[in-house]
Amino acid sequence: MTSASTALLTDLSGVARLAGVQRAVVSMWRTRSAGGDDPFPQPVASDTGRMRFDADEVADWLARTGRGNNASAGVDAAISAAPDGFSYSDPRHVAELEALITLGALTDELSTEKLHALAIEHDSDDQILQREVVAHISRGMPWLDFATRAIDAAYSPSEALAVIARRAASVATASGSSAPLTSTPVALVTEMVQALQQGSDRSVTLDAYDVDLSMSVVLALGDDTTFAVPDGVSSRRLRRRLLASGVPVSMPDGAALRVLRVPAAGTGDVVAMLEAVDEASLAMRPADTAIVIGPARALTDRVAPSEDRVRADILRLGRVRAIARLRPGLVTGAPREALAVWVLGPPVGNTPIGDRFTAVADLTDRDLTDATRGDLVADLVTSLQSAREVRSRAFMFARFVRTASLTAAGDSLVSHAPRSSSKTTRTADLPALLDTAADEVRGDVEPSSTVPADGPAPEPAPISQLIADRHARVISGVRLDPTSFGDAGLVVVTAADLEPGRHLGGTRIDQLTFATRHPSASLTHPGDVVFRTSPTAVAWVDDEGSNVVAYPARVLRVNPSDPGGLVPEVIAADITGAATGPAAWKRWMLRRVHPQTMEPLRAALAEIAAARESLEARAQRLERYAALLVDGAATGAAVISPRPAADAASTQ
C-alpha cells in the first residue's frame, strides 16, 4: 500500500493508553520534563480545538526516556491515535476506514491509483465496501496510511477491525436498548447456538446489526458451519468483518438457525421490535429455528393493548417454544433494562393451539454464571425436542404453561417461578416420595392421608393476576413514628422483624395512640401473610392476627370467600427468597392447590410446625445440658461419675 504519510494525533488519554499508564502520570511527565534536556513533545495544531500530540513523537520520546510500560509504543501508535480530521464518533469515518482495511486484507497492491478499480474488482455488486471506498476517494484519500498502520499495529486486518469497533463503541453516546451487550448475554447466545447446532449441518444466519454478537458465534462454531447474512445496508459492517476474517458468506439452501437481536437501532419502539420478530418468524421455513434476544419490556413484560395484539399474533403462530427473562445490567447503554430471550422453532406437529405448551423461565434474580448458563441452555434447547424427551427431563429453570394462556393474558409472559423444595422432582415421583417421607416422620407427627388427585392443581399465577382476579389483595404497612413506640400495647411487625431467627414483640405501640394517629388503619387478620421486598424477600404467616404492620412491610390477605387455591403457608414459602427490585413482587409466582386440599393442608402444616417447634425446644435443652456438663467438668465444679454397668448396657 502506498500513500503519503499522515501524522497521527492523540490526546492525553490516548498518550496514557499508548504508554500503558494512568492519565495523571502523563501530566506529571509533561510538568517534570519541561525544563530538562528532553522535554515531553509539544502539542500540535488541530482542527478539533483540543490539545493533541503527534503520536509518533510521543512514541519516540517514550523509547528514548524509557518511560511507560509499552515497549511496542511505536507500532501501537495507530491504535491509540488517529489522523487530524478523523473521528471515531462519526460512523462515516469509521465505515471508510473499515472499508480500506478490508480491501487491504484482499490485496497487497493497494494504492491511490488503483483504489477505485480494486474496490470494483472485489465488490462488484457493492455489498461490502465499494461505496465507502468511493466516498473516501472523494474525501481525498487522507487515511490510507492510517489503515496500513492500524493493520500492522493489530497484526491482522480482522483484529484491526475489532480494535476500531471497540474504539468507536468507547466514544459513542449511550444508545439505550441498542447499545452493545455485555459479555454475559453474548456468551449465553453463543452457547445456545452451539447447543442447537450440535450434530446439525444447517446454516446459521447472523444478526446484521450486532456485529460483536455475530462474530462471537462465528468464532465459536468455526469453519464447519455455513454462515449467511441478511441483505441490506445494515449488514455491510458485518460483511466487512467476515471478509477480513476469511469467513465466506453463503445463501442458505436448507434448514437454518437465525440469530436476531432487537432493537436494531435507537432506543427501540416496542411495536417496531415485535414487528421485526414477527417478520423473522413469518420468513422461517418449516424446519428453521431462531434465537431472539432483546428488551424484556417488549418480549416478556406487560405491554400496552396495541403492543399486546402484535405479540399475541406472534405467539399464535406456535413457533415461540421457549421464553426466558434475564436480569438487568446486561446492556452497556441501558444498565437498568432487563433482557429476554425467545427460542423459535417448528410448531409442535398439528397440535391445536389450545393444547400447545411453551417453556418459560425467569432468571431476573440470578447472575448468569457459567453453571447457570449451562442449565438454562439445556432447558431452552430441550424445549424444542419431542414431548417424550421433554417429559423425561428434569428442568432446572423452565416450566411449561399453555400457549393459549400467554396469548390471552395481556400481562407479563414470564413471572417469577414458584419456589420448590426440589426443582428436580418429577410430579410422577411425588406419591412414592410422600409415602417414604411419611414413614420417616411417623414418630413425630401423624402422617396425612393422601390419594391421587382427579386432575392437575390450578396453575401458579403472578400476584398481579391474583389481585386482579380478587383472590387476594395487598395492604400497605402503616407509616409509624418511631417516637410512638413503647414497651406495651399492640405488637408492631417491622420489616426487620421478618429476618429469620428474630422474635416478635420487641416493638409495640399503645393501642389508644395507634387508633388516634391512624384511625383508618387496620390490624392483621389470622392467616395474613406479612412480607417485605428489600433487601431480601421474606414472608411470615400471622396465625393469630391483631398486629400492626409497619411500612415498608406489606400484608397479602387471601380472600376467604374466593381464595383461588391460595394457602398462606405456601404463599410465604414462595415469597421467601424470591427476586427483589422495583415492582418485582408483582411478578412473584404463587402456587395454588385444589380447594378441597386447602384446609387439610393448613392443618397438616400447622401440626408439622408445632412438632418442629417442640423438637427445636428439645434440641436447645440438650445443647444447654451438654454445655453445662462441659463447663462443670472443665472448671472442676462437677465430676461426671461413670454410669452403672446396667445403665451403660441399656444404652447400647
Radius of gyration: 33 Å
Number of strands: 21
In whole angstroms, the N-to-C terminal distance is 93 Å
Kindly identify the CATH topology of the largest domain: Rossmann fold
Question: Can you tell me the number of structural domains?
Answer: 4
Q: What average pLDDT do the residues reach?
A: 85
Overall geometry comes to globular
Helix and strand content put the structural class at: alpha+beta
CATH class of the largest domain: Alpha Beta
CATH architecture of the largest domain: 3-Layer(aba) Sandwich
| Main sheet: strand order | 5-4-6-7-9-8-10-11
**How helical, in percent, are the residues?**
40-55%
Indicate the low-confidence ranges by residue numbers.
Answer: 420-424
Sheet with most strands: 8 strands, mixed
What is the name of the CATH superfamily of the largest domain? Vaccinia Virus protein VP39
How many helical elements? 24
Strand content: 5-15%
Written description of the protein model:
- This protein folds into 4 domains: 8-171, no CATH class; 176-409, Rossmann fold (3-Layer(aba) Sandwich), CATH 3.40.50; 461-593, DNA methylase specificity domains (Adenine-n6-DNA-methyltransferase TaqI, Chain A, domain 2), CATH 3.90.220; 603-652, no CATH class.
- It starts with 7 loop residues before the first strand and ends with a helix.
- With 652 residues, the protein is of the alpha+beta class.
- The chain is 41% helix and 13% strand.
- It is globular and about 100 Å long.
- Mean pLDDT is 85; it is low at 420-424.
- The protein has an 8-stranded mixed β-sheet with strand order 5-4-6-7-9-8-10-11, with helices on both faces. A 4-stranded antiparallel β-sheet has the order 13-20-17-18. The chain has a 4-stranded mixed β-sheet with strand order 14-16-15-19.
- The protein is built from 24 helices and 21 strands.
- A hairpin with a 5-residue loop joins strand 17 (528-532) and strand 18 (538-542).
- Helix 5 packs antiparallel against helix 9 (157-171).
